[in-house]
Amino acid sequence: MALDVLTVAALYQGPDINKIRLIAQTTKKSTIPRKALTPAKTKLTTIETKRIMSVLDETIHKVELVSLLSHAASESKTSEGMLGPDITKAVREHEDLCQTFLGRLSYLQEEERKLQEAEEFEDEAWFRERLFAMDVQKSQLPPLMQEIKESTKNIVRLLLSNPQVASLLQAQTLGRSKEAQCFIDSLVELRGFLFEKLLTSPMEARDKIQFIQDITRRNRRHQEIIDTLENELAACVRNRNAEKKYKVETEIENWIQKYDSEMSEKQDEYEELDLIHKEEQLQLEELKKRYDVLVEEFSQIQAEREILAKKRLEDEQEMVRMVRAATLIQALWKGYLVRSMLKSKKKKRGKGKGEKEKGKGKGKGKK
Questions:
Q1: What is the mean pLDDT of residues 224-241?
Q2: In angstroms, how far apart are the furthest CA atoms of the chain?
């Protein structure tokens, strides 16, 4: 049965074929004691149970082999020496069949999508012709699917007849797809459930059912208590929230009133300060005007002072020039007077010397 499911999915995981898997829900860790749920026996004793487990183990083994055919087909050059010529040839033929099947399936899906988009032309002749062609293509899929199943069974038969090759192929676990590994894990988990089920005797099954019912009733009572406590907690939270809300609203209202009163006082104070500011502004403008007048007067006075200072400086400089000129004139005059006095003294000396010489001459003549 498992081989029929994995005939194509083992080699190629198409979009629709991936949906075929065993969904196993992981169970949560239970607080139930292991002694109450664990079977007393640890090994299978009857032939029927052993056959059931052997069939399931053989199925898991075959699924593990089939799920690795995709990797073997993609690595045909390296796997030929490992699988041998016969198995390699069978894998290649199986690959061709799968490619053909998936190609036709993809073509049919694309054609179906196009026809769905063109449903408004369903009365047209070309629409009916394409629909008929699709039906013909679909009718060819079951025989091709049967060929793929037979090819898969043939490959599995060849692998089982050669355990060494099967073990070498089974060691290539990295080549298995995630979907196939998930399916195998689900089968292994199913084996565990089935093994535990087969180990459980009717008495143990009845005790287990009774124990589970007791646990269920206890859990139900606990759940009722939990629901009651949760309802009480929710009511307390609602009351507290309604009280945290009333208090908050009251506090907000008080803050709003306080804010309004303070803002009213601030507004009155602002208006008074604004009036004072306007009066001071008018006074400032008057003072500015007065200041401008004083600045203009000061500028005129400063200009007059500068003119007077400049005139005073010019007068002082003129006085200095006059003093220097007078001093120079006096010096020249004194020099002139001195030279004149010297000249007059020289003349007097010259006259006295001439008279003496004349008197000496007269005295010599008298002798």
A1: 91
A2: 214
Tokens of 335: 């020099």
Whether residue 148 contacts residue 94, with contact meaning beta carbons closer than 8 Å, is answered with yes
Tell me the HSE value of 358 on the side-chain side, using a 13 A CA sphere: 6
Buried b (16+ CB within 10 A) or exposed e, 23-49: eeeeeeeeeeeeeeeeeeeeebeeeeb
At residue 359, the pLDDT reads: 56
Q: How many CB atoms lie within 10 A of CB 147?
A: 16
**Global pTM value:** 0.43
DSSP string, 35-92: HHHS-S--S--SHHHHHHHHHHHHHHHHHHHHTTHHHHHHTHHHHHHHH-HHHHHHHH
- Please state whether 84 falls in left (phi above 0), alpha (psi between -120 and 50) or beta: left
Q: How far apart are CA 345 and CA 292, in angstroms?
A: 78
CA dihedral 335, 338, 344, 347 (to 10 degrees): -80
Average pLDDT over residues 115-140: 76
Per residue in 279-329, pLDDT tens?
999 999 998 998 888 888 888 998 888 898 898 898 889 888 898 888 999
Alpha helices in 122-201 (DSSP H): 125-161, 163-170, 178-199
- Residue 32's pLDDT band, with cuts at 50, 70 and 90, is very low
Confidence label for 192 from pLDDT (cuts 50, 70 and 90): confident
* Position 218, amino acid: R
Query: How many other C-beta atoms can be found within 10 angstroms of the C-beta atom of residue 84?
Result: 15
